[in-house]
Amino acid sequence: MAPVTASPKASLHLADGLRSGDRAALARAITLIESRRADHQAQARDLVQELLPLTGSAMRVGITGSPGVGKSTTIDALGMALIAKGHKVAVLAVDPSSARTGGSILGDKTRMARLSAEDNAFIRPSPSSGTLGGVAAKTREAMLLCEAAGFDVVLVETVGIGQSETAVCDMTDFFLALMLPGAGDELQGIKKGLVELADMIAVNKADGDNLKRAKAAAAEYNAALHILAPRSEHWFPPVLTYSALTGDGIEALWEKILAHRTAMIACGDFETRRRQQQVKWMYTILEDRLHARLRSDPVIRAKVKQTEAAVANGRMTPAVAADTITALLER
Ligand SMILES: Nc1nc2c(ncn2[C@@H]2O[C@H](COP(=O)(O)OP(=O)(O)OP(=O)(O)O)[C@@H](O)[C@H]2O)c(=O)[nH]1
Ligand SMILES: [Mg+2]
Q1: Atom 14, ligand 1: which residue's CA is nearest?
Q2: What is the mean pLDDT of each run of 10 residues along the chain (331 residues)?
Q3: What is the Å distance from ligand 2's center to 214 Cα?
Q4: Closest CA to 326 of 296, 291, 283, 298
Q5: Does residue 313 belong to any structural domain of this protein?
Q6: Residue 272 lies in a domain
Q7: Do 174 and 287 share a structural domain?
Q8: Is the same domain home to 134 and 43?
Q9: Pocket perturbation via mutation, ligand 1, pick of 63, 64, 72, 161 by most ligand atoms within 8 A of CB
């Protein structure tokens, strides 16, 4: 990858390259966003601000599912179908653990072999370091840059560890949960929170011997959804079966995503969800900044350590400690 340039003039070029849909410029701009250098961060902020008017019109779709459920295969199949329709597809990921695992989506490129060879596709691994909030914030900004570069569908993948599902749900218009055609034990493991976030549940691998089990699992998920309160009164999450391998049912997935968008725009929930996401994002950034200050200022850091020790050995209540630390930030 080309090095990130630090001069303001270079970042102007970057903006021009991005506007013209140049994928190399897009990749460099995302690297700028991910850089920890203060000057890069300042440039990245300006760049995103400058390109903001070109953002917001893409379809933002989050995709989650356990390891091996077929996320990459699905994205490959769906992405190819979308490109055939004339879309430009960007694939991003939120995987805060990727610092440890080395970035799963990169290895995944082999599972997205067709898509990664397409000019109208852009695949980028998860930012690999930082808190979930930090990783998610960078992915969000990367998403804006993809939109400015003309990608009109952005697929954001997460393997769904910890809170990453909420983070991806908070940056997308549609949240798709992929499931395996397991029997009862799979369903036992169904995370209530996840089902509450999902705009659709899709049981993958509905092919060959799995077909019957997939249908049975879908029926059970459907029943489970009916006992939970739907997220929007204007949308009841459908449960579908499909096969990423054969492509059977991929088209139906997309049709539901479109139907959801139409329904959400019509009732106003689309705008509401986007507005709430913006505000929540602001608070996420704010929290991250506050945490960063606690860590970066040596005086504060030392004092926080002392306070933490006092709480740990019971000399100070957590509430008094929190007051003490807040007071440090107000200096
Ligand atoms: N039979 C069948 N196998 C599938 C299907 N989709 C994916 N697989 C297989 O399931 C395995 C995992 O697929 P991936 O697409 O890598 O799954 P993933 O969710 O991206 O996995 P991680 O990136 O490890 O979280 C691969 O061997 C795929 O070939 C399908 O529709 N039917
Ligand atoms: Mg994968």
Answers
A1: 70
A2: 52 87 95 91 93 95 91 96 98 74 55 91 85 84 96 92 85 94 59 79 95 92 81 90 97 98 96 94 85 87 94 96 91 72
A3: 20
A4: 291
A5: yes
A6: no
A7: no
A8: no
A9: 72
